[in-house]
Structures are given as C-alpha cells and as structure tokens.
Design brief:
Blueprint: H1 2-73, E1 85-87, E2 100-102, H2 103-118, E3 125-127, H3 132-144, H4 154-157, H5 161-168, E4 185-188, H6 199-211, E5 217-219, E6 238-241, H7 242-255, H8 275-280
Antiparallel strand pairs: 1-2, 3-4, 4-6, 5-6
Helix pairs in contact: 1-7
Length: 288
C-alpha cells in the first residue's frame, strides 16, 4: 500500500513538473508559433503583391503593344523612318515618288518579278505603302472633286454625303482602313480596270492569277460573288503578301474599332456604315 502511494505521489510530482515546465515554456512556444505564422502570412502577402504587380506590368505592356499596333494598322506612321521598310528601286516603280514596302514583301515581289520576266511579263509597282496622311489626301481630293471619279466631281454630282462616301468606297479605302497602310499590299501595273481588259493587261493578269500564289501573293479583291458580296469592287491590280497580311488582318479585326476611324472629310458618316466587316475584312476568301 505504501509502495502504491509512493508511485502515485511520484506520478503526481512528475505531472506537476511537466505542467510547470509547459506553463513556463508556453509563452515561448506560443510566441515562436505566432512568429512563424506571421512570417508565413508576410511571405504570402509579398508573393501576392508581386503577382499583382507582375500582372499590372503585363497588362500595361499588352496595352502599349496594342496601342502601337493600332497606330501601325491605321497607317499613322512614316514608312521612311522604319527599319522594317525599304524603298522600291526606281526601275521597278511606275511612280516617280519614293515608295516603300515591308522588306519581306519587297523580297517576295522581286522573286515574283524575276519569274514573270522569264515569261515575258513586266510587273512594276504602281502603288505600295500609303500611310494615313497619303490616303487622306487621296480620299479628300475625291470627296471635294479635286480628283474626278468616273469623270465626275462627286461634291456636285452626289451632294448626299453618305451616298458620296459609298461611291468612293467602290475602289478607294477610307483613311485608317486601307491595307496599303501595312506595307504588304501592292498595286501592280496601274489601278485602272480598263487597262486589265486590254490585251497587254489581260496577259499580265493571267500570269499573276496563275503564278502569284507561288510567291505568297493573293488577289485581295476578286469579283464579287456569294462568297464576297460586299466590299470594294474587283481590283485585278491589288495583291497582298499573305505571310504578313493574314496576321495584320486578324489583328485589325481584334484591335481597331469604328471610333478609331476618323480625321478625314465625310467621317461623320462612319456610324451609318460597317467599314471594318464590310470592307477591311471583306476580301477574297483565298486571302484569309
């Protein structure tokens, strides 16, 4: 009995000792635990802030890239100042003015031109890159009657501005919507439907229709059918370099809005039109 009491007493003393030690060290362990937890929370907060900052930077970067691409797609730049453009050699151009193309487009054109020469066909660049200001001058001249359209002064023959806008759109893109802004599109040997109905023009067009695709070029505006019922009239002279133009077409669809198309005579009519879908994107299905 005495032995049992002694064991109980020893156990009780051991328990008391353990409890005492626990009570003595509890603040330390509690403090350590709280410190570790605080450090963990601080690390998690810091990681969250870093993620948010990186996301903000990425959002700003994408917004900046989109803004720069919008400037490019709407032609608000000078091709002479860009390293990715090159001037067309005078002997290959119909215009006396200095004209430019994207380097990739120009190289493909030279290869196509060389192949055409072997077949007795001479392909010259009538028009290449036209920035916003250049296109604006062409457009405004037609709008005011400085340049006649079908032999008429449209400011007099079509006083209704919406009808006049649509008339010019038969063959001319509004500033900010032309594929010629991109440096990927070439007018070859003129821009006159009658020329390509002549024996010489018809032969040149026949060669292009048969061979241009081998060099990456596509006739952007084919004859209107059920597959392309809206947009510009057929242009046998207008050819796009697809390895670049396809991407720019997709970016235009995603980036440019109607509100970005402005700054020229008649632009008040834009809300009544569907310029992007019915003109910019209304191209030969083979070029998409």
């Amino acid at each position: 009995m005495e032995k049992a009491k002694k064991i109980i007493t020893n156990v009780a003393l051991a328990v008391i000792l353990l409890v005492s030690v626990f009570l003595l060290l509890f603040p330390y362990f509690t403090s350590e635990f709280l410190d570790v937890r605080q450090e963990q929370e601080d690390a998690e907060n810091e990681a969250r802030l870093i993620r948010e900052e990186l996301a903000r930077i990425e959002t700003e970067r994408k917004a900046q890239e989109e803004a720069e691409m919008k400037i490019y797609l709407t032609g608000k730049f000078d091709p002479a100042t860009r390293e990715d453009f090159i001037s067309v050699a005078p002997q290959y151009a119909l215009s006396a003015n200095k004209i430019y193309l994207r380097k990739e487009t120009y190289e493909a054109y030279l290869q196509m031109r060389s192949a055409a020469e072997s077949a007795g066909v001479d392909l010259k660049v009538a028009s290449a890159t036209r920035n916003f200001d250049y296109q604006k001058k062409l457009w405004n001249n037609k709008w005011t009657g400085v340049t006649l359209v079908d032999g008429k002064n449209l400011s007099q023959s079509i006083p209704n501005e919406l009808d006049r806008f649509k008339k010019i759109l038969e063959y001319s893109a509004a500033p900010g919507t032309s594929r010629h802004h991109w440096g990927t599109d070439i007018d070859i040997n003129g821009a006159d439907p009658a020329y390509f109905n002549s024996p010489k023009g018809a032969r040149e067009y026949a060669w292009l229709a048969e061979n241009a695709y081998k060099f990456g070029f596509c006739q952007t505006y084919n004859f209107k059918t059920s597959t392309r019922s809206v947009g510009y009239n057929e242009e046998k002279w207008h050819w796009s370099y697809l390895p670049l133009a396809r991407n720019f077409t997709e970016q235009y669809k995603n980036i440019v809005k109607d509100g970005d198309i402005k700054g020229f005579l008649g632009d008040a009519q834009i809300p009544a039109l569907n310029l992007i879908n019915d003109y910019v994107l209304a191209i030969n299905p083979d070029c998409i």
